[in-house]
Design goal:
Radius of gyration: 31 Å
CATH topology of the largest domain: Rossmann fold
Structural class: alpha/beta
Number of helices: 28
Strand order of the largest sheet: 3-4-2-1-5-6-7-8
CATH superfamily of the largest domain: Glycogen Phosphorylase B
CATH architecture of the largest domain: 3-Layer(aba) Sandwich
Largest sheet: 8 strands, mixed
Number of domains: 4
Bound molecules: alpha-D-glucopyranose, magnesium ion
CATH class of the largest domain: Alpha Beta
């Protein structure tokens, strides 16, 4: 790698900020948030890294801190958190974000254009971040890294095993959409980073991989300055800061509220109140074993809560179950269930208190993809008892710092805990192994070293990340983002028509100015039929094709379909209902099937004064939202209310940050009317049809004398379009 890298990471859901993370505040604000921020920090320290931007969703909502409404949070001089809005400003749980991700992508592209810097690497986290990063990668030809954190298919299986009903799961978790998205992501990713080996086999293994993509196990690192061993405190007390001392003291006070014999060793667990964390398994193991109760106290830190009755169902169930078991086994005086803790200072102190009391950390989740808390515990010198399902296997193998158990076997759990607490030598061995081995194997420095090394074969050396000039070999997104001027023309009777004598000259002119001017067509034809007629006239495929009267948009030679445009126009579109209504009108004749599209219903209609009004009447009486376009005295097109050729151009202007005034737009008939109006440089060719007569004299609309391509050329020189485009780019 010769050039320092600009890395963009995407972690869309949850509450994300660099300081005072609210881990556990809700189901979407957990280990992933911590992981991505730490990864960003560590990467930004890399010499070969120019800059890291971590993208998340902007949330401006009275129920959460205003920190999440800040557009740019500077973490250090090479690392920023970028917040981009989508789907409004309120907090939305991750399962409901899917419909808004295309909006997120569009706004990210705007951001990239404004910053004038294309990333060298995009890295998506979780399926939502993976979708966004994958789409950007495809557009810009940028290498794409993915980290799942957790995957939909194993989760679905788990929920089914729990006895949940398939439709219920789908309703609540949109799980099938997530799984499909993950399948797509895995087809595109250049590299998938996992934390453990078992993740590759047992989780990714449930997807259709066919030997691709490439996987790399890189365990996350730990902030060792934060998770130093429990015995440090005693040695260097004066150096501890006031926050830490306060946290330590108040935690002890808190525990003392619960414990009758506070000096006994503590069995600690720390997790979200999620069923799969199996808190009830641990409480039962403790409750069933009187001997264990006499040896040690149990402390459960299960997220943050004010009022259990107002938590969501899963959390409410878990917490209620915990309280009921505490009561059933009469664990009063032995079991602590504090209602809150902060992550910055209290969590590390909590481990250290457990260490001082010669306790044990327990994570007996039914399945644990990684097990970050186990690593934290081990780093501070606490022996662990861990589930044998998932990542903990690797941790115990690498660190030799505790015992693996079957999480569904409560006797195994209590025996393992007793074994460690009762045997001081064993306790010491596990404690020391943890402290030493974590420092060797689980630091962010070692993570980043491996990560950057794995990027070497992937990063393209030749592509520059700045925006000038546009090269013919550029991927379509890379090309469009460098352009600031566009010529968009209708096809039939405008670009191509009865008089094609000037067509070659026009195409040559566009080719010569390809570095500064983008070329697009906007047509009533379907994309297939547009491609066919362009080919027939030996015209290379343009940068974009707005087809079916603006109801579809495709980019470049690969005809990349714009999902952004689709999701924008699809709102409130009721094709079936509209068609049924219009089919009642006997003056309408449904056009051939191959002209019809999901977002376009077309009829033939002979002209007559009242007919258009009749249609408007019928549709609005039935509260339909639509756009009606009538042209050439015969074509009637009904489109979604947000669609039309002109609106598609405005969307492009918005998304790619190209001022609408820098578009030169050409047409000949009624279905060009609305795209010619307003700010673009409008050109009406000499052979226009009478519907455009009213545009005469309108501002910014030039009526050419020559027909077709000749008229377009005339318009180009009228506006001095080429000269202007060059000037803009200078
Ligand atoms: C093209 C399409 C047709 C449409 C007309 C006007 O001819 O094939 O479906 O109605 O353009 O937009
Ligand atoms: Mg036309």
């Amino acid at each position: 790698m010769t050039r320092p890298l600009y890395i963009q990471m995407f972690s869309i859901h949850g509450l994300l900020r660099s300081e005072n993370m609210e881990l556990g505040k809700n189901a979407d604000t957990g280990g992933q948030i911590h992981y991505v921020v730490e990864l960003g920090r560590a990467l930004s320290r890399g010499k070969t890294v120019k800059r890291v931007d971590l993208f998340t969703r902007l949330i401006s909502d009275k129920t959460v801190s205003t920190d999440y409404a800040k557009e740019i949070e500077t973490v250090n001089d090479k690392f920023r958190i970028i917040r981009i809005q989508c789907g409004g400003k309120k907090y939305i749980r991750k399962e409901r974000l899917w419909p808004h991700l295309d909006e997120y992508i569009d706004k990210t592209i705007k951001f990239i254009k404004t910053e004038a810097c294309i990333p060298d690497i995009v890295h998506g986290h979780y399926a939502d971040g993976g979708y966004v990063a994958g789409q950007l990668a495809e557009f810009f030809g940028t290498p794409f890294i993915f980290t799942g954190h957790s995957l939909g298919r194993p989760k679905k299986q788990k929920l089914l095993n729990d006895g949940l009903d398939e439709t219920e799961i789908e309703k609540k978790y949109k799980i099938n959409y997530r799984i499909q998205t993950e399948e797509d992501i895995l087809k595109k990713a250049d590299l998938v980073v996992t934390s453990t080996n078992q993740e590759i086999k047992q989780q990714y293994g449930t997807y259709h991989l066919n030997g691709l993509p490439r996987f790399q196990v890189i365990p996350p690192g730990l902030d060792l300055e934060k998770f130093y061993p429990y015995y440090y405190g005693k040695i260097s007390e004066p150096e501890l800061n006031e926050h830490q001392l306060y946290a330590h003291a108040s935690l002890l006070e808190e525990l003392n509220r619960f414990f009758m014999n506070p000096d006994k060793p503590v069995i600690l667990t720390l997790c979200r109140p999620d069923k799969k964390k199996n808190i009830s398994g641990l409480v039962s193991a403790y409750g069933e074993d009187k001997e264990l109760q006499s040896m040690a106290n149990l402390a459960i830190f299960a997220g943050i809560r004010k009022d259990i009755s107002r938590k969501d169902d899963n959390e409410k169930d878990v917490l209620t179950r915990m309280l009921l078991l505490m009561d059933k086994y009469d664990l009063y005086g032995k079991m602590a269930i504090p209602k809150k803790h902060d992550f910055q200072y209290e969590v590390p102190e909590l481990y250290r208190i457990t260490g001082e009391k010669k306790g044990v950390f327990v994570n007996v989740a039914l399945t644990e993809p990684f097990g970050l808390t186990l690593i934290e515990a081990a780093a501070t010198g606490i022996p662990v008892v861990a589930t044998r399902d998932g990542g903990p296997k690797d941790i115990i193998k690498n660190c030799q710092c505790g015992i693996l158990v079957d999480p569904t076997d409560t006797r195994q759990i209590s025996h393992a805990i007793k074994k460690i607490i009762a045997d001081a030598d064993l306790w010491k061995t596990y404690s020391k192994n943890g402290v030493m081995n974590i420092r060797k194997k689980y630091t962010w420095e070692s993570h980043v070293k491996k990560y950057l090394n794995d990027l070497k074969p992937i990063v393209k050396k030749s592509t520059a990340s700045d925006l000038t000039p546009a090269k013919p070999s550029d991927m379509i997104g890379r090309r469009i983002i460098k352009l600031n001027s566009f010529l968009v023309t209708d096809i039939d009777n405008t670009l191509i028509g009865e008089d094609n004598t000037k067509l070659k000259k026009l195409i040559r002119l566009l080719k010569e100015n390809k570095e500064t001017i983008g070329f697009g067509v906007a047509t009533g034809r379907t994309v297939e039929s547009a491609v066919a007629i362009l080919k027939k006239h030996n015209i290379d495929l343009p940068d974009l094709i707005i087809s079916s009267v603006g109801s579809e948009l495709h980019y470049g030679e690969q005809l990349q379909f714009s999902r952004g445009w689709e999701s924008h126009i699809s709102k409130k579109w009721e094709r079936e209902k509209i068609k049924e209504l219009l089919d009642q009108l006997d003056f309408l004749e449904y056009q051939e099937d191959d002209t019809q599209k999901k977002y376009k219903i077309s009829y033939y209609m002979p002209p007559s004064k009242d007919r258009v009004a009749t249609i408007h009447d019928l549709l609005s009486k039935n509260s339909c939202r639509y756009t009606l376009i009538y042209s050439h005295d015969q074509f009637l097109d009904i489109l979604p209310h947000r669609a039309s050729k002109g609106k598609a151009i405005r969307y492009l202007s918005y998304k790619w940050e190209i001022p609408i005034g820098n578009f030169l737009v050409c047409g000949d008939s009624g279905n060009d009317d609305e795209m010619l109006r307003g700010e673009p440089m409008g050109v009406v060719v000499g052979n226009y049809s009478h519907e455009l007569e009213p545009l005469k004299g309108a501002r910014n609309i030039y009526f050419a004398d020559e027909p077709c391509a000749g008229g377009i050329l005339e318009g180009i020189s009228h506006y001095q379009f080429i000269e202007k485009a060059k000037k803009i780019n200078d």
